[in-house]
Amino acid sequence: LGTPISDPVHLKIPLPEPIPGGGWHAQVIYIDHFGNLSTNIDLSHLRSAKEVLVKIKGKQIAGLLSAFGESPAGTLIALINSSGSLDISVVNGSAARSLNAVVCDSLDVFIRN
Questions:
Q1: What is the pLDDT of residue 69?
Q2: CA distance 41 to 111
Q3: How far, in Å, CA of 12 to CA of 20, rounded?
Q4: 34/89 Cα distance (integer angstroms)
Q5: What's residue 72's pLDDT?
Q6: Rounded to an integer, what distance in angstroms lies between the CA atom of residue 66 and that of residue 104?
Q7: Which helix (H) or strand (E) holds 45?
Q8: 47 close to 106: Cβ distance less than 8 angstroms
Q9: What pairs with residue 53 in β-bridges?
Q10: How far is Cα 14 from Cα 78, in angstroms, rounded to an integer?
């Protein structure tokens, strides 16, 4: 499907770094057209977590949601996307615009087991 390419570029996605005491220092690696921030944190980083606290751009998000509909419009949320990565979103809005966020911005994800 499409024109064949002979020189594909392999992107190196940065790995999250452990935070002493439990958690990860991570990065925004992609922003979709809705303004959702995809991070380099995936389920393998959060498997044993009983509680999750995300800190990004001076804001805190306590816990992970399963769906956007679990919070009212305008709420800043964290959830696992369909690819298994941690996303930061605003219900019916744009997290990128709300946080003035760009690719490579950092965030901290604290976990309690």
A1: 87
A2: 12
A3: 25
A4: 9
A5: 95
A6: 25
A7: helix 43-46
A8: no
A9: 62, 110
A10: 20
